[in-house]
């Protein structure tokens, strides 16, 4: 086999990422090993993706079984794993119709197209929040409330508007007859792990009902038990019209979904939307096994318990001034230190954490993380901050 190293990245890859120097080659549970066989404990979880850890034996078995049967068909035909997965989602939630895709950005793109057809000509604007993150495709980027990310790619696609997160009055003021939907994260993940203030999601639901708008919730980062409830909106008393999913849904197998109420989903007619890889047997089989295992282990309860321990230990760490988030999606605010060198120093000591903002570290370990692994991770953070 070809020898490859971090240097190879510079030689053959588009320079849109700045990956770490190490190259992981295998993983198991909360840990992975690099080319030099150095061990790391993974508290980034592929950014809230590997909720069951790396190479979970049940997922490996499900994937192997499907790999022997059928990988791909395209949407000229449907397939059993996709239908079983959609059925499971509809039975376990209030979803009535499901569309499968491959990523969070694609789930949001599907939601925008639903919203535009739902609104009709002249009523196409989606309002989202400053500080939000909804993906890197052009429309998802336009919905992302971070103007600095827009700048290099101006002009942005038309039809997106932003308001301060948590401010219902600003949202109400931004709604005019051109608006068709409100798009919101229950916890702003990339924005620094900022949970919605109490009453915010309920207020959005009421506004959407009053003005005839769709409430779209972006659960890409928060979905599937990450925050200690099955979905982020479960922390509030609301039912969104459209829900966007990805990340933990396939535990690393690329898959996303967008679910909606039946009448809302009905606006998409044959030919309106699609993807070659929408709901492939191989990806949906992986997702079905992932969700079955998350349910079997009562993943929300694990996230709450482990999250409470991690939060308590981080709060007692000198140099940490605040911890926010929910379940196992947490951010530790540091005492003014630049988090980039802190995260790099943690990595050198074998802990993967993500510097989500210049002042906060994000923790999103597998929901199956053990008490010992939490203690080990916090001990490394303590050592680095000391
Ligand atoms: N929405 C949210 C809330 C996210 O956190 C992300 C990714 O971090 C996305 C959408 C984009 O997902 P993807 O990178 O799979 O396109």
Provide an overview of this structure.
This protein has helices spanning 6-12, 45-48, 57-69, 80-92, 104-119, 138-143, 147-150, 168-174, 200-211, 262-265, 281-296, 299-315, 339-348, 371-385; strands at residues 24-28, 31-34, 39-42, 97-101, 125-129, 160-163, 179-184, 187-188, 194-195, 214-218, 242-245, 256-260, 320-326, 329-334, 351-352, 354-357, 360-363. It is α/β, with parallel strands linked by helices and 386 residues long. Strands 4-12-11-10-7-5-6 form a seven-stranded mixed beta sheet, with helices on both faces. The relative contact order is 0.16. Bound molecules: pyridoxal-5'-phosphate. Pyridoxal-5'-phosphate is lined by residues 47, 103-105, 108, 133-135, 185, 189-190, 218, 220-221, 246.
